[in-house]
Amino acid sequence: MARVRTRTQIAKNFATLVLAAGLLGGCSMASDALWPSLTGDDPAGNQNASNIPASQAEANRQPTLSPPPTLGRTNFVPPQISQGASTGTYVGQRVVQLRGELQRLQTQIGQQNVQLQAIRNMTVQHSQNYHGTVAAVNARLQVGTTPGNPTLVNQWNVAQASLAQVENDIAQMNSLANGVAGTSTLSAYLLETTRAAYGLSGAIDADHRQLAVLEDEVNRTVVLIDRLLNELSEDVSRQNNYLSSERTNLTTLALAIKNGELLGSSLGNRAFSSSAPAASSFAAAPASSQGGVRRPLVVIRFDRTNVQYEQPLYNAVSRALQRRPNALFDLVAIAPNRGNTARVALSASSSKKNAETVLRSLSDMGLPLDRVRLSALTSNTAATNEVHVYVR
Length: 392
Prior knowledge:
By secondary structure, this protein is α+β, with helices and mostly antiparallel strands. 51% of the residues lie in helices and 7% in strands. The chain has six helices and four strands; from the N terminus they run ααααβαβαββ. A four-stranded mixed sheet has the order 1-4-2-3. Helix 3 runs antiparallel to helix 4. It is elongated. 34% of the residues are buried.
């Protein structure tokens, strides 16, 4: 591949990330096999780059927020209990006892229903507070602000507190679900006991008629409790998923506040699976299935201090995930192989630290670490430390 040449000089001292897709032949990692990197050059003239189109959500100029939590809306009111006349028989007395137990059971259900509705109202309020605060932060970031703006930091703390309240609401739902499960056990026992009363001796026809009515009422109560327990379990499951998603979004938002520019939602929320084990050490260079070195998605050249790479890195990885939600990534630290042995070793160590910094950035953006593999290389042609990101 011919060496890509610079066409324009960027006015500001800003590091540019270049997106690329596809495969390269050869394993040399030479500079003429790489896309333009963070050198301040304009890569617009590169005809080999394959741009990844933005999704509809990314093309929206307004900040994209996760939807508020979805909660059930059923009001679980127990059915009315009929009042039967006393027959004076032993079975008739047993029917009166069972009716009293059903009344106490329904009172317990009513209390649990009131508690459920209160928790739902609190959850919605806390979620609305959270989303309102996050929307304000995103709106400020979208128009641009200073890195680490203390006003936004305070708003982020408020959003975190609101999300902690949602977490507490989920804990209350779990506690209530345990109570409803106990009520469900009692209702099943009451239904079994009511049916067993048919076998008692000394009953008259009126007793069995009242038992039949009572059995129907217990049955309806059992069904109501099952619906309450199922809907509560679904609420807990949805809220846990929502909480997990918003935690990663909040982490990404903290990174955006640090940089003073809007990133978007967490990368982890765009990923639907992760199947590769995490690599804890630096390994060999990533090779394609055809045996050649792959063309990097992103090249970051650390040829100056405070390289501003996070926003372009987020855009590149986000678009890659839009095209391939199950994508895994290789993070390669490249050090120039120049000078004596001590100089090469020092450069390699610095390059690995740069790769670890990029890895932390990806983690802050919400990308699961088990989807990223680290490796390291020395290059005879690299002029400075670089970090390459590959899709695999």
